[in-house]
């Protein structure tokens, strides 16, 4: 298949002219296959498009029977064309009919052709179809010819992705625009219908075909050199300063940036007539297509490193201003990202945000906490989420079932619209309970409080009828700031929080950082197991200046009002005693300088480290109150990383072992007359909260959206009956059993909403 005079560059110019002609999509596609066949001196050129029903259909041909167009169809894994679509790899054969995957289609008339070359039509690593050429002779296609056809395929891929061919198959659409449904992990409940906004928008390559290949080669070389220098500087800075960017990740990206094969493929793409941007896009699309099909998780993880590198080069080529700015949202925006921190989410205008989709991030991550605070439905663990959709695509986020629907069909959209209406009616019912005290049918009062971390959360106090704030996470102020908040800034926030809460109590937790909660302006400490490392109260006691500044700001902000402070991740009674001593010193300091102290300053400890279970009597005597951090307590009790999908759901918090731990805390707290609140996620789930009421807990703190459902449950039960059921079940069950089935049956039989 010797190239015609002018080679691929001439072909690309002719294709550009064909794309601009004012003709129908079918006529344009027919013209394109004629141009390709003529340029590469092939007797046949055919385009197969992957339909939304996963069938490959012949959309255009030069050299085969034209009557077979839109009639010849095959499964996506059938024949040579199906093999290319499945593997996303080129296939060159001197005698195609001898290949075991060859599938003879008599209507095409291809029995006269032997040599075969096919390449996948790829975009963002997704297969959209297959481009093939054939010759009668038995011949071997060269690497240059394969490269030229791959370059041509990129132009066709963009044509398919644009939706131009969508109506050519009357009984189906193309796979590029097909509906996609994937399941992930719920971060924040709710249902959101809207349109995709990419947090890190893919740079759209508007010019595929180069006017001057030499100039494009220079642009590519310059961009790569600049990216290499920038990565080298980041690695060096990480060595000296211990920045938050992981050295290991940067070293991997640097290794790829110096890979000769990667650079060679981009140079070849530019040499074939593509612009520098199109060359980067084409090579990365090929890489993505190969790596998403790998079964080795290590190789699949490297895809993110290659994406990072390609994005860096692309930004060098087009300029950083082309990326877009956070906060600029259309109406009904659904944000899609690989990962995101709470600060990045807060950069966007919440009034226009209807949902969040992430590739990475667990239910207890801070971005999940912020999403719940803002009332934004969110789903994570959606593999390659950003590659599944384009900006502006219709999308549904199901924060109840954990599903994401991209480009949903009308039936799915109508079904979810009805679900939204039903949820709205249910929320109206919950709002009707706002001023109704949460008292069980047998007269037991249950205190329902809010978890909060932002000033905006305090508006939910009136909206939900919550009795106060059971947990105010102070670290969110630190995580969304670009620098360490000053003492005055902290004091201003705490005063605003206490003022906004009015006469309702607020329990403020001291800074809980470390582990997965990294401050962007503080050196990152590399630890083998950060969840069990230097974090929370341990940092406060080792760096008392940090804790003293926060405590002083809290004491000043109270200005004569009651104040409740609790310390996170207390592992021993001694840690609490040492923290209390720091509070006493700060109070003495402020008293000497004439400041008004809180009329009542209560100090509490979070029970989330299992060691406290064996010191529960002592800590209940020392502390004014206890708060059960059930997320961490369950993680440490069962040695389960709550961010690890393989094991996160392995143990049920309603299992006998967990219930015994909870019962111990409730009983020993009551015996010491020490109030106990549950502030983890378990308290916001009606069935789980019902179990905790049966164990003796009387105070819960939860997300605003959980207040209504939990209150409805409380109003429907008799605490004594639940306690009796739990006593009976726990007495006869084995350690591995769960109370969940028995509790669910109990609730169903008595009409308890769960």
Automatic annotation (TrEMBL):
Q: Cytoplasm: is it a keyword of this entry?
A: yes
- Enumerate the cofactors the protein uses: Mg(2+)
As one GO molecular function, the record gives: metal ion binding
Its EC number is: 2.7.3.9
Location in the cell: Cytoplasm
What catalytic activity does the UniProt entry give for this protein?
L-histidyl-[protein] + phosphoenolpyruvate = N(pros)-phospho-L-histidyl-[protein] + pyruvate
**A GO BP term, please?**
phosphoenolpyruvate-dependent sugar phosphotransferase system
Give the residues annotated as coiled coil: 210-237
Which UniProt keywords are listed?
Answer: Coiled coil, Cytoplasm, Kinase, Magnesium, Metal-binding, Phosphotransferase system, Pyruvate, Sugar transport, Transferase, Transport
Q: Which InterPro entries does the annotation name?
A: GAF, GAF-like_dom_sf, PEP-util_enz_mobile_dom, PEP-utilizing_PTS_enzyme, PEP_util_C, PEP_util_CS, Phosphohistidine_dom_sf, PTS_EI-like
Q: Name one GO cellular component term.
A: cytoplasm
Q: Is the keyword Transport in the record? A: yes
Show where the GAF domain sits: 24-170
Similarity field: Belongs to the PEP-utilizing enzyme family.
* NCBIfam families with a match to the protein in the record: PTS_I_fam (TIGR01417)
Q: What is this protein called?
A: phosphoenolpyruvate--protein phosphotransferase
Starting at the broadest rank, the lineage of the source organism is: Bacteria, Pseudomonadati, Pseudomonadota, Alphaproteobacteria, Hyphomicrobiales
